[in-house]
Amino acid sequence: MDFSDFNNINIKLGIIGLGLIGGSLAKAFREALPHSVIVAYNRRVEPRKMAIEDGTADIVTAEVDASFSDCDYIFLCTPVEFNEIYLKKLKSIIKEDCIITDVGSTKSNIHEAVKAENMEVNFIGGHPMAGSEKTGYEFSNAWLFKNAYYAITPTDRTDNIKLQELIHMVKLIGARPIVIEEYKLHDYAVAGISHLPHIIAAQLTNLVKSMDTEDSLMKTLAANGFKDTTRIAASSPEMWQQICMTNTENIVMLLDKYIKQLIETRDKIENGDGAYVYNMFEQSSEYRNQFGNRLSGNPNDL
User: Rounded to 5 degrees, what angle do the CA atoms 162, 174, 289 make?
Assistant: First the structure.
């Protein structure tokens, strides 16, 4: 497919799930590929109505059916466990050269399902490192992926031309593609920089709730530091339950190491080891300052 003149590309895209990510992908591609045809599935009626009324989708459907039979690319944008169900439904629907990709935060389960269905030629994993604690189509926007890293995990049978096409499409919506050849490595990495932080934020919030005074003094005094640290605690419980259940081994391993660090820190503070405490903050400050600043249009990127 020639992307040199994307304003005139005739491409059909399928979006399975019109939540925050699916809706934002549809809107981003509507802007980037104005002549594309976008067909979208969603269980709930309201997101389908909004996608038609705001001009994002050309076709909406309440079923994963023949509406997707001539799609060039299909994006699975539902919770992880449902993506596997829709993958199996699409197997008998898609055309021979269609590429199915997903946006799931874990890759092992979907890649294993792809292998089980013998669909490795038709699948390339994906994970945009963008989002918000808000959920639903009503919060979706075309600029969600601007300057965000977008992990791409090909299979052993992925055609390089198709891989390059997907990389180009990711760039068209303003994201920064990064190809990770081994999908298990992806899951290890995101367990540390995404999954564990969500657990920490949730439990820190729950701790303050359980230890707050009767007049909610902690909540009243909570300023930007606490709010920034725990913002992601407001994310979808359903989504994060599924992520924890599908990346369990990596999360448990890192959680064990984190607990050991916390116990050590507690003991050092109790014993008045100021040097340890100083070094802890010095090392974390030095490493944190090495992180690049993502200049996104979305102030709530994850």
Answer: 115
- Identify which of 188, 186, 205, 199 has the alpha carbon closest to the alpha carbon of residue 244: 199
- CATH code for position 262: 1.10.3660.10
Of the residues 141, 164, 181, the one at which a domain ends: 181
4: in domain: no
| CB within 8 Å of 90: residues ≥ 6 apart | 64, 68, 74, 100
pTM: 0.87
Q: What is d(CA 256, CA 249) in angstroms, rounded to the nearest whole number?
A: 11
Q: Which of 181, 215, 244 delimits the end of a domain?
A: 181
Domain count, the chain: 2
**Residue 160 token pair:** 């390089």
Please indicate, yes or no, whether residues 134 and 78 belong to a single structural domain of this protein. Answer: yes
Task: Tell me the average confidence (pLDDT) per consecutive run of 10 residues in the chain, 302 residues long.
Answer: 61 96 97 96 96 97 96 94 92 96 95 97 96 85 95 97 96 97 96 96 96 96 92 87 93 98 97 97 95 53 40
The CATH number that applies at residue 141 is 3.40.50.720
DSSP string, 30-81: HHHSTT-EEEEE-SSHHHHHHHHHTTS-SEEESS-SGGGTT-SEEEE-S-HH
With residues binned 3-state (H G I as helix, E B as strand, rest as coil), the percentages for the chain, rounded to 5, are: 55, 10, 35
Kindly state whether residues 16 and 113 are assigned to the same domain: yes
Is residue 209 assigned to a domain? yes
Please check whether residue 76 is in contact with residue 17, taking contact to mean a CB–CB distance below 8 angstroms: yes
Residue 300, pLDDT score: 38
The answer to whether 130 and 301 have CB atoms below 8 angstroms apart is yes
Structure tokens at 78: 């539902």
